[in-house]
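Two proteins, back to back. First:
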Amino acid sequence: MTDTLNLDASLVALLGGAVACAVLIKAYFHRLGIPALVGYLLLGFLLRLADVQWNFMTEIVWQAFRLMADLGIVALLFKVGLNSHPSALAAKLPQALPVWTGDVLVSGVVGFVTTYFLLDVALIPSLFVATALTATSVGVSLATWEEARALDSPNGQLLLDVAELDDISAVALMALLFAITPVLLTGNGHVWNAVGNAAGLFLLKFSLFIVFCVVFSRYAEPQLSRWAAGIRQPPQRMLIVVAIGFLIAAFAEWLGLSLAIGALFAGLVFSRDPEAVKTEKSFEDMYAFFTPFFFISIGLHVAPGSLTQAVWVGSALVAAGVLGKFVGAGLTSWFTLGSSGALLIGASMIPRAEIAMVIMHQGQQFGRAVVPDNIYAGMVLVTAVTCLASPLALHPLLKRWPQKKGAKHA
């Protein structure tokens, strides 16, 4: 009994210390102009180094961090879906579609070619890297655009639209990849027939899940929102919304679609009436509490012994990540936005963070054959470098080409 209490106390102290460190990182990194997620990654890696010395990460502690990381993924993807506006995005699709198509295709192909041919990595890890590199993290660039008062400009709105499409497509590709990975791992002679069958089953499940979300959004969500609005205490209203979101995410996991895609679509379900959700401070508090654990967990999973190889692998993946987005998004937007607009869009799409690392983190659950340690550590380096470099590049570009609300594309 005493040992159990001591373990519980140690675990609570460790989680509490991680929360306190995350708060300090958020505050001080903001002053330095560095994305807080870089600090969270570093904190997780420092915990891993400390564990090498003192061996305090027992299986129970790992399970606790794993649970907190899963809750962080759900909160993260729920907010991504919540901040998306499917109807508004559909109206702007004709303008955003060419940029998004080139962006995803070029970044995915460059990522796969770099990993599979240049780094001589196996097929499955190369597919995971390629899928991860199709995503972006516009939130990193967003602060720079807001600081320059450029977000309401046509170029700023196009950036948001393309980034939303990026997030949704990357999560969908991730779910498809998860469906075919067990089949690819078998490596039998009829693998491609099996892959086709697995992909077909996934598309059936995915379609049914989308139908469920559309029906829920159209018929159940308005009733639920009206009922929740009658509750006097705002935190309780938000807890109902979040609880439904968590249940939808769990339902997607049970269907074999993953928590991430369930959380994304749960957010999309409630995005039709976002004001009631966004104004509730309680969700922001939950988001701020859980999401650092996802990035801390990523740092925890970086094996110190993989760092030597990760520098070479990570450098190649950083080059692929920068080239893929800069060319993919920049070149396709050149024809409609001109050179200055293309440079701005291309530079803004470079950061990889949340969705990219969700893909790698979830892929690691299949084992090292799917996401080897050096590839995982290399993608962590991609996250750190691209999230630091993109804002540094954007500051002078936005000063040279100021963006104004309602102005023509510059």
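And the second protein:
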Amino acid sequence: MKKARFVKAAVAVLSLSFVLATPANAVDLAGSGASFPANLVEGCKAGFAKASTHSYQYLSSSSGTGRKNAIAGTGQFWFSDGVFPAAEKPASMKHAPIVAGPIGILYNLNGNAGKTLSLSAATIAGIYGGKITKWNDPAIVKDANKTVTVTKYVTKNGVIVKNPDGTNKVASTRTSKISFSLPNRPIKVVYRSDDSGTTTNFVNYLKGAPATDLGWTSSGVFSTAIKTTGTTVDAAGNFGRFLGRGSSLGVANEVKLTVDSIGYAEPSYAGGASRVANVYNASGSPVDPLTPGAVASFLSAAATGTEESKYSGVAGTAEGTYKFNYKTTEKGAYPISIVSYLVFDTQYASASTAAAVKELATYILSPACAQTEGAALGFAVITGKAKETAEKMIAQIGSK
């Protein structure tokens, strides 16, 4: 009898401990979608759990998968680097642009220790269009060997400091001669083979940047684009040079493993044998994507909020989407910067779920996530009008 009472008491204590350790209002969220923001979302998981009563899991795959899961109602939040097509988007779902960062041009070349390759939009387009097939092509040599001017901004806690007239405060302007030895070897071109928002943004950049000739017309998956070029690709000797891989991690790993390759992914996926190139913007300055303020200065030239409704494809509504200005002449702007949208529902079945998703979105947008965790990964703090737009969209989570 005494033993039975002891066992019952022990069970009661354990049960009470579990209740105390698990707040009554805690919500476990499940998310999925774009691989671009995955490192930031994962990096902010512990901080969010500490700052709130909730937790979450995020399955990184692709923007297309995120949108499909949103339509199917699989999980409670989704990420997409591309805008949800109006014809497919459920009426109750909207975008919150809460993650900002650069698409890095990753490459794997032997030699040139301590040096970084610089590439222009026209050259990148030539490589992905199948017209530039070798590393020592004159266009790449020209980009990599010239006198350049690099501008850096004054930043504080990840935010660009402004002059009294509203312009960006310049920390330094340096002119120097860059040089890079390039081999006479074929370029292995790595692209996203899945339904990728990163690809959509990358292609939009190539289309929107000055003096580019893509050689193909698809705005979606590169495998489709390569097929549509038909004999043009084969005649240029491109068969077998293009390697399709799923997810940003898949592209980055292929570049790491393949000498003479080039690919595109969020820079935090780089490492090992791969490096991240500087990219020339419309002012003619080569910009390191990880330079503080480089992403923010590019995004500041984009149309957002009420301005963007004409671009969103959703008539009469402000969807929180961006229209980027790839021709901005802001000298320190990194020209392949993007936002990743949290796709959310305005009609969650549970008020507690809606509140938890709203808390998560607010936390990811905050400096506690974007700066504290994101800076080292290359992500940027969203500020100014762009932040106001994001906050207006977050306010609509679960609004019905």
